[in-house]
Design goal:
Blueprint (H helix, E strand, L loop, with lengths): L2 H7 L8 E8 L2 E8 L4 E6 L10 H4 L6 E7 L15 H14 L6 E7 L1 H11 L4 E9 L4 H8 L4 H19 L4 H4 L8 H4 L4 E6 L13 H15 L5 E6 L6 H4 L1 H13 L3
Parallel strand pairs: 3-4, 3-5, 5-6, 6-7, 7-8
Antiparallel strand pairs: 1-2, 2-4
Helix pairs in contact: 3-4, 5-6, 5-9
């Protein structure tokens, strides 16, 4: 399964176990980095706009018995620019081609953050035989708009509409191609589509002394944790962790927690 990865890693730019390269994937090029040559393969799917850098805080803390793969989607990091409005399906097709080019032939663990969870869920639903377990780090949840409307029943709808329009304007300004897909609030794929696999979800539920946004109020943080748990609990082999010291970027706020939960997940994965 890993012969191509290990063979490539011999020509490391930093160490015998680290390799970074720009790979031709479908009609674009993606920035890909591979670390280690352990028996457990772990693929990291970053949050929106983060790219490879989205995992910097845990990258050097990862266990030595894994082969870690991270990459930047088109339009992010050192990958090629994106064009137009893209959907999670567009990104999944790139992931599928990346997996094929890396010659991954056995199931691997899929780790995702934020918007990356939407890509990860869809990839898993289309490739059930390739995903052995999933770790979600404060994943995107389409019910987030409900939270704003509950916290502010009078002006919540208007607040959500304004936020959406502001995001779209930012997307046009900076060439981001996933904004409309982020605002697609279709129900998140679940056990029916993905199947019964080991899964851990870490929810960032930190309470803020002086919340600057409606989403940071105590009520909103409570609902966010509840909605994340409700989604995860449909999986019989799920584990939900409430990260009380973390905002949305749990991997930055509590990197050791993310790494320890990854190690724990690998232990209960066949």
């Amino acid at each position: 399964m890993l012969k191509k990865i290990i063979a490539t890693a011999i020509f490391s730019i930093a160490s015998p176990l680290l390799h970074a390269q720009i790979m031709q994937i479908n009609d674009t090029t993606l920035d890909v980095e591979i670390k280690g040559n352990g028996k457990h393969v772990v693929l990291f799917e970053a949050g929106a706009i983060s790219g490879i850098a989205g995992w910097d805080s845990i990258w050097n803390k990862l266990p030595h018995n894994i082969t870690a793969i991270r990459y930047s989607r088109r339009g992010e990091g050192k990958s090629a620019d994106c064009v137009g409005d893209l959907t999670s399906l567009d990104y999944v097709k790139d992931t599928e081609q990346l997996v094929k080019k890396l010659d991954l032939t056995r199931p691997f663990t899929l780790v995702s953050h934020s918007y990356g969870a939407k890509v990860a869920r869809l990839y898993s639903s289309r490739n059930k035989d390739m995903v052995s377990a999933m770790l979600f780090v404060d994943p995107i949840n389409p019910r987030d708009v409900e939270i704003i409307e509950i916290v502010d029943p009078k002006d919540g709808v208007a607040a959500n509409n304004k936020m959406q329009q502001d995001d779209i304007k930012q997307g046009v300004k900076f060439g981001w191609c996933l904004i409309k897909d982020i605002w697609d609030k279709s129900p998140a794929l679940g056990i029916k589509e993905i199947g019964d696999i080991p899964m851990t979800l870490i929810a960032g539920v930190k309470r803020f002394k002086e919340p600057k946004r409606l989403f940071d109020t105590d009520k909103a943080r409570q609902l966010w944790g509840e909605y994340q748990m409700q989604w995860a609990n449909q999986f019989p082999r799920s584990k939900v962790v409430m990260a009380n010291k973390s905002g949305h970027f749990v991997q930055d706020d509590e990197p050791d927690l993310v790494v320890s939960e990854l190690i724990s997940l690998l232990k209960r994965t066949k």
